[in-house]
Design goal:
With about 140 residues, this protein is of the alpha+beta class. It contains three helices and six strands, in the order ααββαββββ. The longest helix is centred in the first third of the chain and has 18 residues, at about 1-20. The protein is globular and about 35 Å long.
Length: about 140
C-alpha cells in the first residue's frame, strides 16, 4: 500500500507542478537515468530527457495561454520498480485521459513517460471526495 500511495503522491506532484507553472518542480519529477518520452495532446513523440524537458519549459513558460490540468480518478498500478497511473486531466473546457509511467530511481518514483489525449468519458464524481486520496503539498 505504501508504494501505491507514494506513486499517487508523485502523480499529484506532477499535476501540481503543471498547475503552478513550476519548471523546477517538473524537472525534478522526471527520471535522470532511465530513458524518457512524452506525447502531449496533438504532438508527436518526444524522446530523451532534453527534448521532454524543453517541451515542459515551453508549456510552463507560457502561463497565459496554458490552462492547468488537475488529475481526477487516478488509479495506480505498481509492478515492482516500475509503475503507471491512469487518470483524467480536468481542464476548464473538458477532460483528457492520461497515462503516466514511473520508475523507482534513488528511492523515489520518477516519470519516464506521459501521454494524454482526448476522451468522451468523464470521471466518476464519487471518487473526488475520497479523504484517503493523497494530495501534493502546495
Amino acid at each position: 500500500m505504501h508504494d501505491r500511495m507514494a506513486l499517487l503522491f508523485a502523480n499529484e506532484a506532477f499535476y501540481a507542478a503543471f498547475a503552478g507553472h513550476d519548471y523546477a518542480a517538473m524537472e525534478a519529477l522526471w527520471a535522470r537515468h532511465a530513458p524518457v518520452a512524452c506525447i502531449h495532446p496533438g504532438w508527436g513523440v518526444l524522446e530523451g530527457r532534453e527534448a521532454v524537458m524543453e517541451s515542459w519549459r515551453g508549456i510552463l513558460g507560457n502561463a497565459g495561454n496554458t490552462p492547468a490540468a488537475s488529475p481526477r480518478n487516478a488509479r495506480a498500478f505498481v509492478l515492482g520498480d516500475a509503475a503507471y497511473v491512469t487518470c483524467f486531466e480536468a481542464f476548464p473546457e473538458g477532460f483528457l485521459i492520461a497515462t503516466n509511467l514511473f520508475v523507482r530511481e534513488e528511492g523515489e518514483w520518477r516519470l519516464v513517460h506521459h501521454q494524454a489525449g482526448p476522451t468522451r468519458e468523464q470521471p466518476d464524481e464519487e471518487d473526488e471526495d475520497d479523504p484517503s486520496r493523497p494530495r501534493a503539498m502546495q
